[in-house]
Amino acid sequence: MTDDADTPPEAETKLTRTKRRWAEEGRFLTGRMARPDTDRLPPGQHLVRDWPVLDLGMQPTVTRERWTLDVIGKVEHPVHWSFADLSAQPQTQEVCDIHCVTTWSRYDNLFEGLATRDLMALVEPRPEATHVVLASYDGYTTNLAIDDFAAPDALLAHAWSGKPLTQEHGGPVRLVVPHLYFWKSAKWLKSIEFRGDDRPGFWEVRGYHNRGDPWREQRYSDDA
Ligand SMILES: Nc1nc2c(c(=O)[nH]1)N[C@H]1C(S)=C(S)[C@@H](COP(=O)(O)O)O[C@H]1N2
Ligand SMILES: [Mo]
């Protein structure tokens, strides 16, 4: 860090005022905020054009006919939905960038599904709910603060580029939380539990960051 006392006052004002404003804005960045295209790739990431597949070595087969979703825990109205039930909810389309902690990013992914905000309006989390834990059909879990889960561009997605989400990418239904590293976006979604405490998930107990903000490079658990 430079010593501000050594900087001429005029220069200090011009430089630091702007940089301080950037930092302040940065505190509240979500993936939704418009960015200049040159500043679109988070630090340490590289762009890919294909869509890599990452999983724990197995891709559970859950047809749309057999898929169910439980939304449970600290909510006023728990739900147990079939795929038809989910499809009957308001549908949202979202174009977003994907950032995986293994350093690939992929731009302009069109997802369609139920916005987490619309889900929350329906189930009504209780005031004491602070976190969610997502559980998947392959045994995977991941945790999110309720505000991250409720981001305006977060979706329970069942379609990508206008087609049903493929099994390898988490079909029938996966979460998509664009403003965090993609390990938070649980594939083959089975349940969403609203909790009054935090409970680190599969990667979070294996050295990965509890929040995972790609713009702050929150990759590993000892990162700030
Ligand atoms: N159920 C489940 N969800 C998961 C995973 C997983 O192994 N199981 N891997 C996570 C990781 S590390 C990443 S990067 C993305 C990969 O999604 P993709 O295969 O569609 O690119 O899914 C996330 N969601
Ligand atoms: Mo990942």
Chain-wise SSE layout:
Blueprint: H1 9-27, E1 46-47, E2 68-73, E3 79-82, H2 83-87, E4 92-99, E5 104-115, H3 116-123, E6 131-136, E7 141-145, H4 146-149, E8 155-160, E9 163-164, E10 174-176, E11 189-195
Parallel strand pairs: 1-5, 2-11
Antiparallel strand pairs: 2-3, 4-5, 5-8, 6-7, 6-11, 8-9, 8-10
Bound molecules: the ligand Nc1nc2c(c(=O)[nH]1)N[C@H]1C(S)=C(S)[C@@H](COP(=O)(O)O)O[C@H]1N2 and molybdenum atom.
What features would you describe in this structure?
The chain is an alpha+beta fold and 224 residues long. It has one domain: Oxidoreductase, molybdopterin-binding domain (Sulfite Oxidase, Chain A, domain 2, Alpha-Beta Complex). It is built from four helices and eleven strands. The chain has helices at residues 9-27, 83-87, 116-123, 146-149; strands at 46-47, 68-73, 79-82, 92-99, 104-115, 131-136, 141-145, 155-160, 163-164, 174-176, 189-195. Strands 1, 4, 5, 8, 9 and 10 form a six-stranded mixed β-sheet that branches. A five-stranded mixed β-sheet has the order 3-2-11-6-7. It is globular, with a radius of gyration of 19 Å. The relative contact order is 0.18. The model is unreliable at 1-32 (pLDDT under 50). The chain binds the ligand Nc1nc2c(c(=O)[nH]1)N[C@H]1C(S)=C(S)[C@@H](COP(=O)(O)O)O[C@H]1N2 and molybdenum atom. The site of the ligand Nc1nc2c(c(=O)[nH]1)N[C@H]1C(S)=C(S)[C@@H](COP(=O)(O)O)O[C@H]1N2 has 18 residues, from loops.
